[in-house]
Amino acid sequence: MKMGILFLSVMLLSFGCDNNDDLSKGDNVINMGNDNPDISLTGTKWKLTTFVNASEGTTKTPETFSHIPYDCYWIQFNDDNTCEGRSSSNLLPGRYSVDSASSEILITVGAATEIAEKPDGEEFIDKLNRVHTFVIQESSLMLYHNEKDYLLFDIYDNEKE
Fold this sequence. Notes:
The protein contains two helices and nine strands; from the N terminus they run αββββββαβββ. With about 160 residues, it is of the alpha+beta class. It has one domain (about 1-160): Lipocalin (Beta Barrel), CATH 2.40.128. Strands 1, 2, 3, 4, 5, 6, 7, 8 and 9 form a nine-stranded antiparallel sheet that branches. It is globular. The termini are far apart. Residues about 1-35 have low confidence and may be disordered.
């Protein structure tokens, strides 16, 4: 089953999103109470802080490894419709497309391996691949994978590496 998912992810990465999206820096900033209009979806490294399950009123902090407590669970969207990130232990290359007018986003990521992946890492990858909407508010990014539940990110702090 996991091999099938990996194969599908690789196929989607190969034939994935169209490169014709207009993603010039700043185009996809959503100003919903944003006190810093310079924050953009692209060019910003985003660190996952919380799995938010608003449907059940619960939150969860992702489990990390002690030797890399900060350099995991992050994603960065590049101007060329590629994205890169890290799950609990694996690099996540991928692609995305976005419609900034409607805040719709489609992300396709996949780990090259599943070596040493924590359950939260698998959940992170699964939910990234189901994201359909994004919101940037103040200095946080919310990636919604259903109508109420989302992944909550803050700007990655390079000082904590």
